[in-house]
Design goal:
Layout lengths: L8 H18 L3 H7 L4 H9 L18 H14 L1 H20 L2 H12 L5 E4 L15 E5 L2 E12 L6 E7 L8 E7 L5 E6 L10 E11 L4 E2 L5 H37 L1 E2 L2 E2 L4 H29 L5 H26 L10 H11 L6 H14 L1
Parallel strand pairs: 1-4
Antiparallel strand pairs: 2-3, 3-7, 4-5, 5-8, 6-7, 9-10
Helix pairs in contact: 1-4, 4-5, 4-7, 4-8, 5-6, 5-7, 7-8, 7-9, 7-10, 8-9, 9-10, 9-11
């Protein structure tokens, strides 16, 4: 498989540097962070020091000024070595995107340099206990107060909650329609802003997830991102980018599972020969390799469309849908190829399988992706 498919020479150099970093620094310690349920903050700062926390953004604010495709290829490489670290990078970019694309010049200069340097970690706060797929029904409220906004309510399933310094929060500032939602930047440590308990999850143990609790949190008026009532538009634009990020992460995770299964199949002896010599396993591996390559080409094509200024929304949904389903199939088959060993924590494929499941849920469930794609087909 061509992991560098479609990349220019300059992009390949960036990816190669990340590949080396993951092999030498992050990959060998990934299992330990997962076992300890510890967020790899120092590794994230190192990614920031390498210029990876703001790859596709304006250099005027400390970004890398590179293409979105470069960012996606980097995400895939990080996910191949340490999935939770890739997720951290993806969510971080998702939170910064709103300010970079819609924020005032003052907001950009105040927050983006710290985010892009990896000094600050970002979180994206849209989901609530009663509004997941139906995100427009959110209830968290922001009311005008003292020239700013008084934020009340809660957010659920927020990645980086408690760890992040920067939170892009979607709150209701108007009526009950999507046009009544606005986006606000909130900082950790502000009065009236706290966190719920740490969630216990099936996977992604090194990625903290908690509830955000707002009890009269005063947000300055200048921390409104874009115009009042523009929040849902900002959220959806961010999710298009985020879906491509999740697609890239899915491919990286699937690649790691495939490589583990291939290596095991070459070493494991049964009936006097390596199990890879059995046609049934060869067919499984062939399907895995084909699905991964198709998913890679799908997300990279959508990334190129985005870089060219085209409409990539449907392509992002297709890439996220196919790549995350592929990650689930490939990791499941990797466990099967390992046999009884695949169910043991001694081998990484059981963790890969647990990590893959959530990819079919985050950034819009795969049922929602099919709705998005289907509606676009009906409109054509």
């Amino acid at each position: 498989m061509d992991r560098d498919f479609g990349l220019s020479e300059d992009q390949r150099e960036v990816v190669l540097a990340v590949r080396e970093f993951m092999a030498e620094r992050a990959g060998p310690v990934a299992a330990g962070f997962e076992e300890r349920h510890e967020f790899p903050r120092d590794l994230f700062r190192e990614l920031g020091g390498m210029g990876l926390a703001g790859i596709p953004y304006d250099e005027a604010y400390g970004g890398g000024g590179q293409t979105f495709l470069t960012y996606l290829a980097v995400l895939e490489e990080v996910a191949r070595g340490f999935f939770s670290l890739a997720l951290a990078l993806s969510v971080h970019h998702l939170s910064a995107f709103g300010v970079h694309a819609f924020g005032s010049e003052e907001l950009k200069r105040r927050y983006l340099p710290r985010l892009f340097a990896g000094e600050w970690l970002g979180a994206y706060a849209l989901s609530e206990a009663s509004s997941g797929s139906d995100a427009a029904s959110l209830r968290c409220k922001a009311e005008r107060s003292d020239g700013g906004w008084l934020l009340t309510g809660s957010k659920r399933f927020i990645t980086h909650a408690g760890q992040a310094e920067f939170y892009l929060v979607m709150a209701r500032t108007g009526d009950g329609s999507p046009k009544g939602i606005s986006a606000l930047v909130v900082e950790k440590g502000w009065d009236g802003f706290d966190f719920g308990k740490l969630e216990s999850k099936m996977g992604w143990s090194a990625s903290p997830m908690r509830e955000l609790l707002f009890e009269g949190c005063q947000v300055p008026g200048e921390n409104l991102v874009g115009a009042e009532g523009q929040g849902f538009t900002i959220a959806l634009a961010g999710l298009d980018c985020g879906r491509l990020g999740i697609a890239a992460c899915s491919v990286g995770l699937a690649q790691a599972a495939f490589e583990a299964a291939l290596g095991f199949a070459k070493e494991r002896q049964q009936f006097g020969k390596a199990i890879i010599e059995f046609e049934g396993l060869q067919f499984m591996l062939a399907d895995m390799a084909t699905q991964i390559e198709a998913a890679r080409r799908l997300y990279r094509d959508a990334g190129r469309v985005r870089d060219a200024g085209g409409d990539y929304s449907t392509g992002a949904s297709m890439a996220k849908l196919f790549a995350s389903d592929t990650a689930m199939r490939v990791t499941t088959d990797a466990v099967q190829i390992h046999g009884g060993y695949g169910y043991m924590q001694e081998y990484p494929v059981e963790r890969f399988m647990r990590e893959a499941k959530a990819l079919q849920i985050v950034e819009g469930t795969n049922q929602i992706q099919r709705m998005v794609i289907g509606r676009r087909l009906a409109e054509a």
